[in-house]
């Protein structure tokens, strides 16, 4: 029932209590680095300063050059970070949400020793107007620390779909504390429709010709709905799969690319063998969706199926962070051997 089926061996050294992370880094590095940039909208916030003050800016869209422009003018009455010296070194940073990974951040220069910085700078995004209108602008102000321990000073978030584009004047806006939705990465990235099954070692009986000598995890990626539309023509998407902590080539699998479709149907099955029942407590199936382009692929969202304990084979790992829905899905599979478990799980920024 699927267009392709892959079978991968999944083996760990049970004697060494360390994950078998191989030297192959290119694919997994791309997952880690892009996930990092996705989260970097609030990374490096070491300060505990309350947001205060205002920021003056204007928005415009240049139809001729297909360019979104954020005119950052100045800020007033920002919080003081270094109270002993009575100083802040502020700069302004912008993202387009929820597509932080693709569009990247823009930021102004740093103005030193002032809580009333003047910038008069334009931050630019090359983007189609119809794509821009499904984004939100996140504009935040930060204190720049030489050691990278930057402090958050306040933000404002604007829904560009409801923005009055005839308003090109500079206006003042109050800076607000960080929104919980942005801190927790709650943004709609689409949903994945899939089924999973665990076949324990020898569970199919001796008479079955396909009875596995070791356990198998079957992953059937059916389709994804409501992906981010990065271009007017849609998105060219594919799904990557790893069984963590193994990030070697043996663990890596991917589907074919579905072009120009925000609701792609993959119908792709992957089988990982070498699973013992106890491995299910320590392993994590990571499925990530990517937009394919010639020079680089862009992260769209993903899920992690596991127990979400934060531990793998006794070692603390940040990728063992499954949500309640993902944990419940994995537990249901563990409790129902040889049965397909169906699920519809929201993609997240990981």
UniProtKB/TrEMBL annotation:
Its main location: membrane. It is found in: Cell membrane. GO terms for biological process: exocytosis. SMART domains: C2. Residues 51-173, 200-320 form the C2 domain. GO terms for molecular function: neurexin family protein binding. GO terms for cellular component: exocytic vesicle; plasma membrane. Keywords: Cell membrane, Exocytosis, Membrane, Repeat. InterPro entries: C2_dom, C2_domain_sf, SYTL1-5_C2B. It holds the Pfam family C2. This is Synaptotagmin-like protein 2. It comes from Rhynochetos jubatus (kagu). The gene is Sytl2_0.
């Amino acid at each position: 029932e699927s267009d392709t089926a892959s079978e991968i061996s999944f083996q760990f050294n049970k004697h060494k209590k360390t994950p078998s992370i191989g030297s192959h880094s290119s694919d997994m590095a791309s997952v880690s680095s892009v996930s990092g940039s996705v989260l970097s909208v609030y990374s490096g916030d070491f300060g505990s300063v309350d947001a205060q003050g205002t920021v003056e800016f204007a928005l415009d869209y240049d139809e001729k050059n297909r360019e979104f422009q954020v005119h950052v003018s100045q800020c007033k009455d920002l919080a003081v970070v270094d109270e002993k010296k009575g100083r802040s070194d502020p700069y302004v940073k912008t993202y387009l949400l929820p597509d932080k990974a693709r569009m990247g951040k823009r930021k102004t220069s740093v103005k030193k020793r002032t809580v009333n910085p003047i910038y008069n700078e334009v931050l630019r995004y090359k983007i189609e107007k119809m794509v821009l209108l499904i984004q939100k602008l996140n504009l935040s102000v930060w204190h720049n620390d030489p050691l990278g321990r930057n402090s958050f000073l306040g933000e404002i978030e604007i829904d560009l779909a409801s923005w009055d584009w005839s308003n090109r004047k500079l206006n003042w806006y109050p800076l607000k504390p960080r929104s919980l939705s942005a801190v927790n990465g709650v943004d709609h990235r689409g949903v994945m429709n899939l089924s999973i099954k665990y076949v324990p070692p020898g569970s199919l009986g001796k008479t079955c010709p396909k009875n596995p000598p070791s356990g198998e995890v079957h992953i059937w990626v059916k389709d994804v709905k409501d992906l981010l539309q990065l271009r007017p023509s849609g998105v060219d998407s594919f799904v990557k799969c790893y069984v963590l902590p193994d990030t070697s080539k043996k663990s890596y699998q991917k589907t074919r690319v579905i072009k120009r479709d925000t609701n792609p149907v993959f119908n792709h099955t992957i089988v990982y063998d070498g699973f013992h029942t106890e491995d299910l407590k320590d392993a994590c199936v990571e499925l990530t969706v990517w937009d394919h382009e010639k020079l680089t692929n862009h992260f769209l969202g993903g899920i992690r199926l596991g127990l979400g304990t934060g531990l793998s084979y006794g070692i603390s790992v940040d990728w063992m962070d499954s949500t309640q829905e993902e944990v419940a899905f994995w537990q249901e599979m563990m409790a129902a051997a040889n049965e397909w478990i169906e699920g519809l799980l929201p993609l997240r920024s990981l």
